[in-house]
Every structure is written in structure tokens, then in C-alpha cells.
Amino acid sequence: MTAFVSENELEYQRECMRRVRAMQSGATAFVDTYGCQQNEADSERMRGMLREMGYTLAPDERADLVIINTCAVREHAEQRALGNIGHMVHYKRENPAQKIILAGCMAGEPGARERVRRSYRQVDAVLDTTNFWRLPETVLHLLETGERSIPDTEPDSRIAEGLPVVRTHPHKAYVSIMYGCNNFCTYCIVPHVRGRERSRCPQDVLGEVEALVKDGCRDIMLLGQNVNSYAGEGMDFAELLGAAASFDGDYVVRFMTSHPKDCTHKLIDTIAACPKVERHIHLPVQSGSSRILKAMNRRYTRESYLELVDYARSKIPGLVLTSDVIVGFPGETEQDFEDTLSLVREVRYDSLFTFIFSPREGTPAAAMDDPTTREEKSERFARLTDLQNEISMEIHSEAVGRTVRALIDGESRGGELNLAARTQEGRLINLAGDPSLTGQFRDVEITGATTWSFIGRLK
Ligand code: SAM
Ligand code: SF4
Ligand code: F3S
User: Fold this and answer.
1) Rounded mean pLDDT of 420-431?
2) What topology does CATH give the domain 3-156?
């Protein structure tokens, strides 16, 4: 049974927003976002609250209020955020009234508060992902008292509905359908920092999707760490997806991320039956060795994963599959790694996100014996990316000459190819065109291919 933040508590946050608004005029705020789409979605809500508090959204860290929405998934992500927090000292020296809030997944790590209290004096408040709806209360406290706010809060297991939002793009939207994760893969920090799974009510999700579609939104991404374990009252994920894709209008529904253990035939049949659902499944496999999958606590085997892929491909012609792989999990032998290579050869993913295992304090894998050297891991990593690049290039080259329907996504940094577009399968096309086409579906001829994307021409 999902628990919700009460109307009284939300009203108190609204009251705080009004009080902050009355205290200042012309103040600026900046939200710096690291990590995955979940953080992007949270940042959009934070910007919504900041706007209600009267802040003007600023483009960089010189703002009067800076929120650093951090990621903790790998050491590299943490180092980037910490480096930036270190840098903030200079901005604060220029603007001593500046307030800095550490938010996101690092804020939920065991020990993070203590570390900030001791070593990051420039940080004024810490707000973990389960408590970020308390942003107005936190900002008001900082402005009224000038004191730091780094309470030892527990993760909040409730859902806060109805928070304001500033969407980054008018034509596309993230819709979080659930929060947290119960899977406890042995390498992963996410369940430790984002708390247990909780699903929004289907009416709330579908109401939001319908309003977005009416508003002209063309690209809706249903979000969750493990969307297919969604358990809203009376609806599973397949049913929710089917319903989200059944409103009148020209739009596409995507979802991220599916866990193979919960990817049911019913879900695949739903994708096959709903033309508005993207023909793409991101299905992280992590390893091709059943032995390593067991040590990772993934709860599927190489064989069951491959069966699932076969079923999906038999039901959804043209399906695009992408995946995540971790190289160098503790105890991964050369044979285990060969199993990953052979699985990648067999599945032929469109693209892969590959990571070298990064030990995360407090997770079981961080304490496992790990005799493989960094050099061996890097060498395996290079072999895997070489293989995938070859496969991606072969698959992408086959599409050259075809004309596809694509949603113009906006401007890109591609020089002459100034626009980015997405196909019905979620593949990226770079092309030249008028930026005012953003948000429109257009026919595009594929004229070239790279390992990550296509080059195209508007028809
Ligand atoms: N919930 C999604 C799932 O289960 O597939 C993924 C969430 S995680 C934010 C994204 C990817 O980061 C994972 O699929 C995994 O490949 C990678 N990852 C997570 N923890 C990691 C670690 N400790 N070291 C290296 N990669 C990691
Ligand atoms: Fe992490 Fe596993 Fe949960 Fe994904 S399913 S967020 S990898 S614990
Ligand atoms: Fe990072 Fe948190 Fe996402 S750890 S990948 S921002 S869920």
C-alpha cells in the first residue's frame, strides 16, 4: 500500500514557498544535475518549487542558491560532483550570501552528512532524494536563520504528489511512475540511497500523461529504477504502459529501466500491440555468465535472459535492444568475461553502456575478493567496446538508405548537423534543419551511420 505525504505537510511547503517569495526579489537559483533520468526528473520538480519561491533560474553556479543534484552510482560520478562542490568555495567568496544545497543520491549515502559537516563547510544543507519535496522548508530555514541544515533524517518512504514542475523541453516529459529499488544487486548503491520501491497510483500517472498529451507533449518517458516491478493499485506495468499509450494524439511512450527478471511476456505483448510505445527495450544484462549474475543477485540466468530476448524479437519486429554491462565484477574470470562477449555476439545489441566495476561502500560486492588487476579490467573493457562498436556499425549500416519517421528532438552540437531526432525505436539521428521543427514528427532518410547514431536528411 503506497503511503503519501499528507495534504497538511504539502500545504506547509506551499506556505514556505510563499514566505520565501515574500522575502526576496530578483534572487537567482541554479540546479546542477548529475546522473540518470531520475535525477533529471527530480531537478525539474526542484526548479518548479524554486520558481514558486520567486527565484529566477540561472545558467550557472554564480546563482544565489545552488542545488547540486548528485549521483553516487560509480566513484567517477561522485568525484565529479565533489570536485564541483570544492569549486563552489570560490563562488561563495564572491557572493557570501550564496546558499548551497547538496541533493540527490550522494545525499542519501551512509556517512555523507558527517562528511559534509566536517569537510565541506561551504555546503549549507543536505537533502536526500526521498526528502527533496521539503526543499521550500529547507530554503526558508536557510534564509531565516542563516544556519546550516544537515539533519540526520531517515529516508521518507512516502510519495509527494502535485509538486510544481519546470519541464526542460515542452515537447518531452519524464513521468516518474515509481521510486526506489528493492533489488539490492550486490554492486549497486541505488537501493541504499533511494529507499524501497513505492509506486504512484495509476490515476495520478495516467492523469499526468493525459494532461501532457493534451498540452502537445510528443515524447513521454515513464521512469523508475525498475519500471516493470511497478505495482500501482490494481495495475501492473504492462497495463499501465498500455493505458498510457492509449490517449488520442500523436506521441510516443518510452520507459526506463526494465529489469530482465520482471520483464514478462505480457509486457512484451503489450509493446507489440501498442503502436505508440517505442520499439526499444533497454534490458540491462550486466554479465553473460550465470555464475557472476548469481553473485550480482540479478535473479536471472544467461539462458533465461536469452530466451526472453528470443521471445521479444519474435513478437516485436524491428525491436531495438540496448543494455548495460559491468566489466570486472569481483571474481570475474577470463571465462566469465568470454561468456559476456559471446552473449553480446549472440544478442547483437544496438548499443551498450559499459562500465568497469566500481566498489561502493556499504554494498556486498565492495567487500568481495577482487584479484583481477585494474589493467586486466581495462583490457577486457576495451575488448568489449571494440566488439560492440563493430556490431553497432554493422547494424546501423544496414539502415542506410531507409526512410523512417522521427521526432525532431531539438538542437544538437553537431555543427552542420544542427538537429537531433529520434526514430520510433529511440535511435538518434543527426541532421540539418530548421530548429523550429523541434517537437514535430518528420520523415527522415538515413544517409549515413556511426556506432552511436545515424546521419539523416529531412524528406
Ligand atoms: N536499475 C537499472 C537496472 O537494474 O538495470 C540500472 C540502474 S544503474 C543507475 C545504471 C547502471 O549502472 C547499471 O545497470 C549498472 O550497469 C551500472 N552500475 C551500477 N552500479 C555500478 C557499480 N558499482 N560499478 C559499475 N557500474 C555500476
Ligand atoms: Fe541497482 Fe539493481 Fe536496483 Fe538497478 S535493479 S537500481 S542495478 S539494485
Ligand atoms: Fe546516479 Fe542515483 Fe541515478 S546514483 S544513476 S542518480 S539513481
Assistant:
1) 96
2) Rossmann fold (3.40.50)
